[in-house]
Amino acid sequence: MLPVIGQLLVLQDRDRRLLRLRAELADVPLQRKRLQDRAAQTAAAHEEAKVHGRQVESDRKKLELEVKTKEEFIRKIETQQGATKSNDEYKRDTHQIATTHGEISALEDQELVLMEEADVAAKELAVAAGIAATQKADTDRQLGDLATREDSLLKQASVLAVEREELASKVDEQVRGRYDRLLKTKGDNVVVGVANVTCGGCHMKVPQQLFVAAKAQTEIISCSSCGRMLYYTRDMEG
Q: In terms of CB atoms within 10 Å, which end of the chain has fewer, N or C?
């Protein structure tokens, strides 16, 4: 194997590792957002349960106030009725009192329904609060783990990038330029074996003369189909 091919294979290994690290780093913000969205959903459900509970209690208090208002109205009518001298007015007041008692009864029935609804809402709120608290704790823990992981990846990538540059600096400048151009278009599979007269990158058959030249290991040979750099070792005999 040509020494420069050996250098490129080591460089390619570092580039592969760097690309994997950078891909993981690029996914960190997405993971963070997914965790935050999940926590936000349970927090929103908790808040919705609180709002619902407050609304039910507000509605119940309005009914309670309305009942008190009608009871005060009845007391006023009864006081007025005690002073009336007209039989028609007395009957009218009696009818008004009966009607208002009926209205109060209907309001109290509604209030009972709301009290039952308030009990259900309180239970739902307790469940939602528990879920939200658990989710927040889990999210905080996972976000912490993710931050630690991100920091580790950044450090690894930084160290590897320095190592990569040191390795790259030892490769012939012209060859390195060729390699870097292929790295941009072919990804992390630039220097490939040519086993069974087949390119290890595009898997196309290599012309016999190129295969022979690759076996000779006297110069860098490129695949005629994809342009990747080819290398050959004896274990590639098929």
A: C
Helix (H, G, I), strand (E, B) or coil at 110: helix
Separation CA 41–CA 49 (nearest Å)? 12
Third-level CATH fold of 18-170: Helix Hairpins (1.10.287)
Question: Model's pTM, two decimal places?
Answer: 0.74
Q: Would you list the domain boundaries of the chain?
A: 18-170, 189-236
The SS3 call for residue 197 is coil
β-bridge mates for residue 198, sequence order:
195, 205
Distance CA 121, CA 107 (A): 20
The token duo for 47 is: 């808040």
Tokens, residue 48: 């919705």
- 131-159 pLDDT tens trace: 999 999 999 999 999 999 999 999 999 99
Per-residue pLDDT tens over the stretch 41-96:
999 999 999 999 999 999 999 999 999 999 999 999 988 888 877 888 888 989 99
- Long-range contacts (CB closer than 8 Å, 24 or more residues apart) made by 104-111: 104/67, 104/70, 104/71, 104/74, 107/63, 107/66, 107/67, 107/70, 108/63, 108/67, 110/63, 111/60, 111/63, 111/64, 111/67
User: What's the confidence (pLDDT) of residue 238?
Assistant: 53
Structure tokens at 119: 């009990």
The two beta strands, 229-231 and 221-222, are antiparallel
Please check whether residue 232 is in contact with residue 214, taking contact to mean a CB–CB distance below 8 angstroms: yes
d(CA 12, CA 2): 15
At 151, which amino acid appears? D
Task: Look up residue 173 and give its two tokens.
Answer: 């400048």
- Find out whether 157 and 21 touch, Cβ atoms under 8 Å: yes
